Amino acid sequence: MNKIISSIAICMLSITILSSCQQDKKLPFYGERHAETKRDTAGIEKIDTVYQTIPNWSFLNQDSVVTTNKSTDGKVYVADFFFTSCTTICPTMHRNLMTVYNEFKTNPDVMFVSHTIDFKYDRPYVLKKYAQKLGVDGPKWQFLYGSKDSVYTLAEKNYLVAVGEDSTAKDGYIHQGYLVLIDKDRRIRGAYDGTKEDQVEQLKKDIPVLLAEYKK
Amino acid sequence: MRKYIIHSIFLFSVIAIIVSCQNQETIDLQNYMSNGKDIYKAKCQNCHGENGEGLGQLAPPLTDSVFLIANKNRLACIIKNGVNETLVIHGKEYREKMPAFPELADIDVAQVMVYVTNSFGNKQGFVPYNQVSTQLQNCK
């Protein structure tokens, strides 16, 4: 009898220890940060860390409709930079991103934003054709067209993705294949190499973690 | 007993020699397949996928054996020079342009062609390098 009681006790103890080990996982913050002193409502001074955020933007989407940051505000979204005539990394990136898209298709809190860096050729109707052929329909995945200046600045300064024109490259442009994860407060919370399957798998795991941060 | 052992060793070595004597074509095929796979990964996989599944309507799958057999003599030219016409594959139209790969030597084209036509459910067998070379000289 004693044996049974003690074994039950051990079991209970180990379960308690194991369950207390679980920590709320949080994703890191990327980019510049600075400390800001603020007064809360009670008038007490508090120091807060302010992280880099994505500024307001406005571009034409694949339906030639002016699309702004309002469409992604309050949502977790994945952003990337590509162009439709790219034959090197973009097909792999979007093949992998398609699997993420399919997994979160029904989640209203998740969106996808692809910016073209080919300002000469990738007009909205070209993007529309591309999206349809890729198998994307609807507003959940936006393909955005903008001037060279606006898109390139946004990429390099805000999403921290290197892009550029390069006449020596096979398709005329070079860019990094990062899929950048942005939280509901426009902060950068992850960057995943879209050409590597294991990193894209990690993105699929991290999106629910990020969504859970807002559920409290 | 000793005689028995010697006999069995002799018999065993004869069998071993016969087994190792594969014909030259099988060795060439294996050689092309393994080199072709590396070229496929570097040049083709981006669009056509790891298993030749293609990418939506942007890039056709490489699993249509009927198309591959019907266009047997064009495949080398397609690989090297790309395509700028509508292709019907598995009954679907594909209109996107395929880029050219001028950096591929004739032997590379032969190897990757043999790889594609003997993978993803295709089984067209071996095509030697000199035959591919002739095809490439007569591209339209």
TrEMBL record, chain A:
What is one Pfam family matched by this protein? Answer: SCO1-SenC
Q: Does the keyword Transmembrane apply?
A: no
**Which annotated residues bind Cu cation?**
C86, C90, H175
Q: Which UniProt keywords apply?
A: Copper, Disulfide bond, Metal-binding
- MF terms per GO, please? metal ion binding
TM region(s), chain numbering: none
Q: Which domain of life is it from?
A: Bacteria
Q: Which SUPFAM superfamilies match?
A: Thioredoxin-like
| Entry annotated with the keyword Transcription regulation | no
Disulfide bridges in this chain: C86-C90
The UniProt record lists the Thioredoxin domain at: 48-212
Family per similarity comment: Belongs to the SCO1/2 family.
Protein name per its UniProtKB record: SCO family protein
Which species does this protein come from?
Pedobacter paludis
UniProtKB/TrEMBL annotation, chain B:
Family annotation (InterPro entries)? Cyt_c-like_dom, Cyt_c-like_dom_sf, Cytochrome_c-type_DH
Q: Has keyword rRNA processing?
A: no
Taxonomically, which superkingdom? Bacteria
The Gene Ontology terms for molecular function here are: electron transfer activity; heme binding; metal ion binding
Q: Which Pfam families match?
A: Cytochrome_CBB3
Name the keywords, alphabetized.
Heme, Iron, Metal-binding
Cytochrome c domain sequence ranges: 31-120
Q: What's the name of the protein?
A: Copper oxidase
